[in-house]
Amino acid sequence: MLGLAIAVCAACATVNYLDPAGPLHEERFAEASPSPPPPGAPLRVVTFNIAYAVKIDLAIDVLRDTPQLRNPDVLALQEMDAPGTERIARDLGMNSVFVPSAVHPKTDRDFGCAILSPWPLVEAGKVVLPIGAFGSRVRRSAARATVVRGDERLLSYSVHLPSPLGVTGAARRQQLEVLLADAAGFTGPVVVAGDFNSHDVGRQLVKAGYSWPTRDVGTTSKFFFFGMSIDHIFARGLVAISSVESFGSVKENRGASDHRPVWVILVAPDEPAEGEPPGA
Question: Can you tell me the distance from the alpha carbon of 14 to that of 143, in angstroms, rounded to the nearest whole number?
């Protein structure tokens, strides 16, 4: 593709997309002019790693049929490709931005993150993260888009950091610093959602001023028989609603992935809004 800076690793045939300008895929399947919610209405955010975008039909069923996941304002997806992102956006009636990080050597297909929303997505972009993973040499990029919900503007990121076998903890912290720097100049609320392949990274985002509503979400994926809490949602300028059911993970994912989808309902910190029931 013209203008792309592509790094090729001869040992593993990895192709990384290192140009901050692209590639980037946008689709629009949502209603052109949706009626905005009342000011300060709760905002539902969902993140789901769909394991190399293989079982898209099952993932669509989970997203459509699970009350806690239904009708999100922001849907962050990881391990996606362009056709899988388009199918989910089309079936759920959402707009989408997909940013491939690389052609993954395991699948020989694009591999990256996506943001979907029923609201307009503007200022779409990618954040190229430093440091390739051991072995695969894949360089990650985060998807970025601003969600326009009536008069509200929400900067959103979908992120997938390498596994502990892929990079050191110090490298992962360096990757997050690049992402946090990208969001630093935005004056409105920010959501960072995805598969961080770590629970400890949450402390770095909290130190940077982000709330961590999914801190106690529990197991979201497994390594052999060991449960891991690695899929999370962070927010700046937003907090979880005051409700027993303000966040959670969905254990029954119909075999769509080796990860559970994670959800949270957010409001501005000074909003006295009572929690909406899941799926409302």
Answer: 20
Pairing of strands 152-160, 190-195: parallel
Domain edges within the chain: 6-267
Angle at 230 between CA 244 and CA 17, to 5 degrees: 130
pLDDT in tens, 62-75: 999 999 999 999 99
The pTM (predicted TM-score) of the whole model is 0.92
Long-range contacts of 59-65, Cβ-Cβ distance < 8 Å, separation of 24 or more: 59/88, 59/253, 59/256, 59/257, 60/87, 60/88, 60/91, 60/92, 61/254, 61/256, 62/250, 62/252, 62/253, 62/254, 62/256, 62/261, 63/88, 63/92, 63/261, 64/91, 64/92
* pLDDT score of 272: 46
CA distance 29 to 95: 5
Structure tokens at 2: 């013209």
- Map residue 89 onto helix, strand or coil: helix
Is it true that domain 6-267 has CATH number 3.60.10.10?
yes
Q: For the segment 180-214, what is each residue's pLDDT rounded down to a tens digit?
A: 999 999 999 999 999 999 999 999 999 999 999 99
Distances (CA, A) of 141 to 30, 144, 274: 25, 10, 36
Fill in the amino acid letter for 150.
G
Paired with 239 in beta bridges are: 267
Centre a 10 Å sphere on the Cβ of residue 186 and count the other Cβ atoms it contains: 16
- Structure token digits, residue 239: 């907090």
